[in-house]
Amino acid sequence: MSHKPIKILKTRILRHRFINAKGHRIDIDTVIAHIIMLYGNIQALTGRTPIRFFEGLQKFCPCGSFASDEELWKEMEGALYESVPEAVRRLLRRRMPPATPYTFTHGDLSYGNIMVKDGSVTGIIDWETAAYMPVWCESLCVSFSGCEEDEEWRMLLRNYMLDYDAAYNFWHQYHYLCLDPNIWGKHFIDEAEREARKPISRDELFAYTNGRFLVNEEYQLARRYAKFDLNALCSVAAAVGDVPSPVASVSKLEGGFSKALLMRKENGSEVVAKIPCRIAGPAGLTTASEVGVLEYLRRNATIPVPRVLSWSSDRGNSVGSEYIVMEKASGVPLFRVWGDMTEFEKLQLIQNLTKLEAQLSAIRFPAYGGLYLRDHLQNSGHRCLQLDDHVDPSQSFCIGPSPDRQFDVQSDHLKDQGPWTTLPELGIFIAKRELSRISTIPNNSAMFYRGTLEEQAQLLDFTIRLMPMLDSHPLLGQSAQPTLWHTDLHMGNIYVAPDDRTRIVSVIDFQSISVMPLFLQSRWPEFLKPPENYTQGFTSPELPDGYDNMDDENKLLARREWSQAKLAKAYEVATYLENRPAHIARNVPRVFRELFTRCGEVSEVGVIPLRACLMEIFQNWSNLGFTGSSPYSFTEEEIQTHERQFAEYQAWHRVQHLAQECLDTDAEGWISPELDIKEKRRQNRELLAMFIERMAGEKSPEEARQMWPFPDDA
Q1: DSSP bridge pairs for 348
Q2: Does the pTM exceed 0.90?
Q3: d(Cα 598, Cα 605) in Å, to the nearest integer?
Q4: Which secondary-structure segment (H or E) carries 251?
Q5: Number of domain units in the chain
Q6: Which domain holds residue 321?
Q7: Are 239 and 232 contacting, i.e. CB atoms less than 8 angstroms apart?
Q8: Where is the Aminoglycoside phosphotransferase domain positioned along the sequence (predicted)?
Q9: Tell me: the pLDDT tens digits for 94-126?
């Protein structure tokens, strides 16, 4: 960044503090105008992420850097008093104004820090707390004062700044909720709880209300719309439990693939009802498999999961939808307490988590697919394989079709969605599924290069030829063992004991979980993923070379990355000690995992990723442990053509990542309900215009627009 404005302000010249100049004749308006001019120079320094936030306003001081408003909020939320209810937290997040563009902020423009001479401002001092902060921060800081005279000065100064009343109201509420809310924040909590209790219409209950979409919004909302008979569902919920009791209230808790309803009964007990949306997965199988997994773990493992109280996978029931009614998860969500846990507590929790995962690795299922209650699946007409006695002593369960959304196919000749008894069977099914899809999916104009239908079919045919050679591959071995695994372990799905935050008391959300090869299942949990440039193996993470010579912001970034690397290393080592099969599976050569992943996404992302994978296998055939000759080949000309296209594909992929990161969204264009969709759409238009301008020398406006993931007419 340019330091010119800062140098101007810090020039050492003869001056008086404004606080000591009260006896002199000073034109206050002139001083304020000069301050606002200098303030504008400082505000021109934008575009970085904040490295400190509101230091000095109160004792809870989140620090960064933060890549998005969501990261900033997560840090701020950690300072809230523990007893602040979830509904209050959600309302407060909605009221937090957008922080971008982050601007360089002094943070304390009190009259004691303003230097004057001969009636003019000659400098501003005390930059110790200056940093990149939210755009509204300087105006907010001016709103707080320590004495009556300073308050008068700040009120005058604020009149000349942009109006950020929303930020002031938000911060006022946030500040008091960081203190004991029973003393200071009771009024806001009462207000938030009244809003949370505000009745919603039936259609709002059925509709998706947990966010908006930058593109294809009507389609995305329709996929997440789920209509059902609420009265019938309440009757089901009222009848379950130790003592039947009518439902007194219903609170909507929504996820991306299902509706979750917290039902409070008149006797004080609570249950959770779960209604899958159309996007969740194969009809009937989605609910039946989740029930099968929960029941199997409850009976045959010590992994704590909610108890199923009632369920139906038949949409023809009285509720008019598939549903599960289950116990409310005990404990508190891990994300609530993670920020307050000591490093030792985090290490203990990681070890306990790997012990639970080790139970999953130890269960030897006979095939790949979904886990179901045997009686239910046999009566539904699906093919199923029973489990061995030592895996299922009661003979109550079986392996059947996969409930994974990716296996929900409509093709007449691909009705068999599992189970699959060998790795080649599974891989060949995935490739054939893509062959059936590519002929029906229209070309995506936003895709940079998809390949012709002939190219796609040829690569999938190469994959089908290769799959049989994996059956006895020496590098796979036991890592291909059919394994049940929770593939979405984030801090919202793990609950811990309030009095012992290292003890996991509930794991939730097993929807669409399948039994798959261990080398495709084993992964870092979301919150323990290693940073870039992470080195696997028994090497201790260290701060980067040259750390001592970094500026404060880069030091902060380096320490955050180091801290995350230490957590990832703790998980890696704990997995090695507690769950050796998963450790070995995670170290299977990357290209084997990519073979299954890339061949399964040809219909969505085109030929280049799969072709890169197949070429890597072809070029490293012997080194990867294959014997004999490859069942396919590429000419030197094809390899050179691919390398050019792959470089362009990487550029396209970087654009997708950049747009998603800048807009706080994902590949579908999802925008958090706490963010302003109109503001995000405005930002999207501005970013697209900037991208088109920057690419002017390389791409036409239309070509640049096609590389952008979110059309500007969204």
Answers
A1: none
A2: no
A3: 9
A4: strand 247-254
A5: 3
A6: 202-331
A7: no
A8: 82-154, 251-517
A9: 778 877 777 777 777 776 777 777 767 777 777
